[in-house]
Write a structure and sequence with these properties.
It is found in: Cytoplasm. InterPro entries: ATPase_NBD, MreB, MreB_MamK-like. This protein is α+β, with helices and mostly antiparallel strands and about 325 residues long. The protein folds into two domains: about 140 residues, 2-Layer Sandwich (Nucleotidyltransferase, domain 5); about 160 residues, 2-Layer Sandwich (Nucleotidyltransferase, domain 5). β1 and β2 form a beta hairpin. α4 crosses α10, α5 packs across α6 and α5 crosses α7.
Length: about 325
């Protein structure tokens, strides 16, 4: 008895898996913990994330996806295998079809790497689709019509921007900038401005709890603790929404510039459609306070956030695998 189909969203921050008949069965961080001596898998997903920055010398945590690209194929395969093993209904090599999503402008080598991973899972078809197309479908856009639709998918490691019409991508760009980069910017800003070293998880918490990309939309404060650069001792400080704004300002500017570059090469007839339909935001970055206000001000277009931004890609795989749209596998 074969499991008919699965869809996989290989996110830099999280991996999501759709199983036909069961919906989303996996939604866990893209992290794996390994025993450095035996190379045995200690933990994956949520359990591995809890270990990040806290492990003894014989255990290391890895994020095999960076900026949407697989940087460690062996770790990636181990991570996926261990996550799938958590779902009893999924039996390796008994999967009929697997659809895996990749960033819009992945290189041929990156595309082939993803296909190779799929080939080790599926008995028959391996399909690789562009994230921007799949996210748009999962967000509820009808891209099969001639009208133009625009989506911005801000994930953990990449930002995909695309104009879609007649079932495919008309113009697009993919930046290797995402939520993880904002975390790093917060971390580095605090180190530079406050002489305080903090961990990745603390930086992410600061971004989520007090972050904004538009001044005045949020004015919150959070107290954090780290290691003083000079004394080496633990020390606490307060971080404000303005601090996060300043830390992330440069990367947000890059994303805005990329959006404008896509709009500039969009055919006039499709540009006219965007005034009516607006732009839809997907991915974890869609939750960033102030983003809609910033884009509305800069682009003078309606900006909408998908109902479930984090699940748009995996929801799109479900629709594609159920033949709601034609799968191109380009």
């Amino acid at each position: 008895m074969f499991v008919k189909d699965i869809g996989i969203d290989l996110g830099t921050s999280n991996i999501l898996v759709y199983l036909e008949g069961s919906g989303i069965v996996i939604n866990e961080p893209s992290i794996i913990a390994i025993d450095t001596k035996t190379r045995a898998v200690i933990a994956v997903g949520e359990a591995a994330k809890l270990m990040e920055g806290r492990t003894p010398s014989n255990i290391s945590t890895y994020r095999p996806l960076k900026s949407g690209a697989i940087t460690d194929l062996d770790m990636m395969e181990k991570l996926i295998s261990a996550l799938l093993a958590k779902v009893p209904m999924i039996k390796k090599r008994k999967i009929k079809r697997v659809l895996i999503c990749c960033p819009t402008n992945n290189t041929n080598i990156e595309f082939k790497t993803i296909q190779d991973i799929g080939a080790k899972l599926a008995r028959n078809d391996v399909i690789v689709e562009r994230e921007s197309k799949v996210a748009a479908i999962g967000a509820g856009l009808d891209i099969s019509q001639s009208a133009g639709n625009m989506m911005i998918d801000i994930g953990g490691g990449t930002t995909d921007i695309a104009i879609l019409s007649l079932g495919d991508i008309v113009s697009s760009v993919s930046l290797k900038i995402g939520g993880t980069d904002f975390d790093n910017d917060v971390l580095n800003y605090i180190k530079k401005k406050r002489n305080l070293i903090i961990g990745q998880q603390t930086a992410e918490r600061v971004k989520i709890e007090v972050g904004t990309v538009y001044l005045g939309i949020k004015n919150d404060t959070i107290k954090i603790t780290g290691r003083d650069i000079v004394s080496g001792l633990p020390r606490s400080t307060e971080i404000t929404s303005q601090d996060v704004y300043m830390a992330c300002k440069e990367k947000v500017g890059y994303i805005l510039q990329a959006i404008k570059s896509v709009l500039e090469i969009t055919p006039p007839e499709l540009s006219a459609d965007l005034i009516e339909h607006g732009i839809i935001l997907t991915g974890g970055g869609a939750y960033m306070p102030g983003l809609r206000e910033l884009l509305t001000e800069e682009l003078q277009l309606p900006i909408h956030r998908a109902e479930f931004p984090l699940e748009c890609v995996i929801k799109g795989t479900e629709l594609l695998l159920n033949n709601a749209y034609i799968i191109s596998n380009k």
